[in-house]
Design a protein that fits this description.
Low-confidence stretches: none
Mean pLDDT: 87
Distance between the termini: 117 Å
Number of strands: 6
Shape: elongated
Largest sheet: 6 strands, antiparallel
Structural class: mainly beta
Number of helices: 1
């Protein structure tokens, strides 16, 4: 090896060994909350600020994707106009990392509509009570 190459190789090794290790973005705590008959809020967290993309739908093969390019750590998507008592599939994506529940997709089911009439209890004051 030529003596002039040794310092260049040493310098190259120095830069390679001192470069910070690049790790993939971590997605955690994927969940559905505040589920009603027509709404749900889907949330997840990342270990660094990242964009937010959510794919959801009634069939695994036909998911609608919505997103937000603003980098955040706590990702939140409120969904409206859902169908009551229906199972939805979803996956989340931030930066180049997708969390699809190990290929199974996450699910949530909307509740049945509340059709029970509220029970009213009315008490009349003594001054109004009577038969006339």
């Amino acid at each position: 090896m030529k003596p002039a190459l040794i310092p260049k190789i040493g310098l190259l090794l120095f830069f390679l060994l001192t470069l910070p290790f690049v790790s993939a973005l971590q997605i955690a705590n994927v969940r559905a909350e505040e589920i009603t008959d027509t709404t749900a809020t889907l949330l997840w967290e990342t270990d660094a600020p990242a964009d937010s993309f959510l794919s959801y739908g009634l069939q695994r093969e036909n998911l609608k994707t919505i997103g937000d390019a603003n980098p955040v750590r706590n990702h939140r998507f409120p969904l409206t106009g859902l169908t009551p008592t229906t199972q939805y599939f979803y996956q989340v994506k931030s930066s180049a990392t997708t969390d699809d529940n190990s290929g199974n997709l996450y699910t949530f089911t909307t509740t049945a509509p509340d059709t029970t009439a509220p029970e009213l209890s009315v008490e009349l004051p003594a001054l109004v009570a009577g038969t006339t």
